[in-house]
Design a protein that fits this description.
Four Helix Bundle (Hemerythrin (Met), subunit A), 7 helices
Length: 232
């Protein structure tokens, strides 16, 4: 009789711990900080690729500014999230998902450092370092290589575990995490579009004043300089 009660108590304790584990996982996927950081990373990667791949234009210049400002503003939140995430999982057994996470965190830190250096060089110095520029570009691709699989593998693992346990809450929370993160990234793109639409370019007057001196002839208005405008 006592053995039966002990067995029931152990079963109840296992059930309690199992429910607690699922509740904690669900809360992690619903974390506002985690969602905002993921959305920021998605916007940063996509805007970075746009800056690198698309031709020079007003939208791309706006993208550069927002990419820089938002990136600097998120150094604190992203750093805090990495600390919290590391403290939660560093004692766990090492796995391929954990290794991807560590690699992704290292790449993200290097990307942030290179971004700050490039911002300083562009703002107050004569030129940017193309070495740091290359580092910033390469870390963008590295984030795709390490962080995206890190998150996707966790989602697949949670979905499989949730299906086996008959617990759909964590699977639903993971799906909402992905959707909300993409909405934040989309919001960054929408901000670029709004700024572009309200931007008023300088109105150029492409003609010479009445008293301009054509000393070397009207066909050579800037002579002896070799300068010329886009219209000649």
């Amino acid at each position: 009789m006592e053995e039966g009660k002990a067995g029931d108590a152990q079963a109840d304790e296992r059930t309690r711990l199992n429910n607690q584990m699922w509740a904690e996982r669900t809360l992690e996927w619903r974390s506002r900080l985690a969602i905002v950081v993921a959305g920021f990373l998605a916007f940063s990667v996509l805007s970075g690729l746009a800056i690198w791949l698309l031709p020079f234009s007003v939208p791309n210049q706006i993208t550069v500014i927002l990419h820089t400002v938002i990136g600097l503003g998120f150094i604190g939140p992203v750093g805090w999230y990495l600390v919290l995430h590391w403290r939660r999982y560093w004692r766990k057994p090492v796995s391929h998902i954990q290794i991807l996470g560590y690699a992704g965190a290292a790449v993200l830190i290097l990307s942030a450092v290179s971004g700050v250096i490039l911002t300083d060089q562009a703002a107050v110095r004569t030129k940017i370092s193309y070495g740091w520029d290359a580092v910033h570009i390469l870390t963008t691709f590295a984030l795709l290589v390490f962080v995206v699989p890190h998150v996707l593998l966790i989602v697949l693992r949670e979905r499989k575990a949730g299906d086996l346990a008959g617990n759909a809450a964590v699977t639903k929370a993971a799906a909402q995490y992905g959707k909300k993160s993409l909405w934040y990234a989309f919001g960054g793109g929408l901000l670029v579009a709004v700024v572009w639409l309200v931007y008023l370019p300088a109105r150029l007057r492409n003609e010479f004043p009445a008293d301009y001196s054509f000393k070397y002839g009207k066909d050579r208005p800037f002579a002896p300089s070799l300068a010329k405008t886009s219209t000649g």
